[in-house]
Amino acid sequence: MFTCDYKKLTLSFNEFHNIEGRDMPEYGEFCLLELKDGRYTAGEWLPDNYGKNDHVSGKFCRGTADTVSLDEIAKWHSLKRYDLSACLEDEEIGYINLGHCDEDTYSVRFKNFKSLKDKKYPKSEQYCLLIMMDGGLASGRWDKIPGKGGLFIYASALASYSMDKVWAWTPLSDDDVFVSEQESEKEIRQERKLNQNPSIDPVRFKYGTDIAVYYEKALKKLLKKYPKATLAQMKKVTPWEIVPYHGQYVFGCVNRFFPGSPTVEEWTEGSTADEFIDFLCKYVEEPVKNYDPDKMFKFGMDIKVYLDRAYENVKKEYRWLNKKILADAPSYAIRQVNGDWEFVKRYKGNRKYYVCNDRSAESFIESVECDYRNAALRANPVVAVYAVPFGRVEINGWYLERYEFSKLKTGDYRVDVQAGDRVTGGSRTFFITPHCFEAKTYEEFLDRYLKIVPPSFGMDKEDLLPNEDLKAFLGY
Length: 476
Hints:
Blueprint: E1 10-14, E2 17-18, E3 30-35, E4 40-47, E5 58-63, E6 66-69, E7 73-78, H1 85-88, E8 95-98, E9 107-110, E10 127-132, E11 137-145, E12 149-153, E13 160-162, E14 166-171, H2 176-194, H3 211-225, H4 231-234, E15 241-245, E16 248-255, E17 263-266, H5 273-283, H6 285-290, H7 293-296, H8 303-315, E18 331-337, E19 340-346, E20 354-355, H9 361-378, E21 382-387, E22 394-395, E23 398-408, E24 413-420, E25 425-432, H10 434-437, H11 442-449, H12 461-464, H13 468-473
Parallel strand pairs: 1-8
Antiparallel strand pairs: 1-9, 2-7, 3-4, 3-7, 4-5, 5-6, 10-11, 10-14, 11-12, 12-13, 15-16, 16-17, 18-19, 19-20, 21-23, 22-23, 23-24, 24-25
Helix pairs in contact: 3-5, 8-9
């Protein structure tokens, strides 16, 4: 652990760079930024014209949907090129120069560092300069987690530094995100105060403030048109509640997904209780209309019948599939949920069942087939891999990172495709069906293959057809 006193520490950043075509950071480099209005922030340099220095174009990324445009910035200074470990191990150190400091050198100093271990946390959404546990420098926006401290978001897709990675922090300048959060927290406090004694509109709530009464009245109306309507199906869509909002009771859809104060979407399409009931009938009509137990359970109430159909369908192409392999797949059942019969699903190692949203027997069987196919691929070991070579391939803002054909123990093949940016990404695995290998020529094989893995995943026929190594790997 470092022995210097962070409370007395000052960092002096010297030798800032101006925004110029031939004097910019490396792609993805994190930098301290001086804005033209005198404020300081930081971010990851993402140029638009990667590899070209004749014209500067790009942005500095601070997080998801959180960037600084180039025209706001006056100067930059690298953050990632320093390791302060040796200095921080000196208990007498109190001032560290970052970059050579001459009389005319442009310098900026930061002090008043705090430690998360002392339970000194930034304000919500405050953007901070960080000294890391490994002696490096970084930056990030504080994302508080109720009861657990928080973490620092530093790039898109919520890439973050956990508390145990940060040795000390100090805030940089206020920005729009932070100011907006402060205003939001102020509004939340005011809202809570207003809602301590909410008023009640006697016309809107003439049946009282129990939302169940309104659902029951709506159900009576729906049953005239849909004899199979149930309360359980009505609540398949986000249910309405009666909640205090802006100092009065309202009909509202409440979002409690994010920590803190819930957000309320107020019903504003009418002003009376009966108008709300009519609205509720229309709001829930889709799931009520589509709920048909006879259609869902057309093959009976024995779950084994549905699972056997899915098994036989998958085994036609995944020929090595057996019942032992399915021990790693989710399990299914038909159970009553809130009074209605539903297909339910439970993942291995989890005791909880989740309701499947399939509205027909055929749709449910297709969902099971997807799980069975995944289980089959997991059980078939890879014995050889061919990675397709490629250059810089962009896919809707991401870049192709991996395009690999794998030969499986059974002699079958699959392909794995991965794409992303510097902090996030995704991958897909595709089984190459035996139908593809019934093709007599490699070109005919590709025509069939590209219907499974279309060119939108980074490779088209023009890329794959000339590849003699891939052709041989696939047995052509």
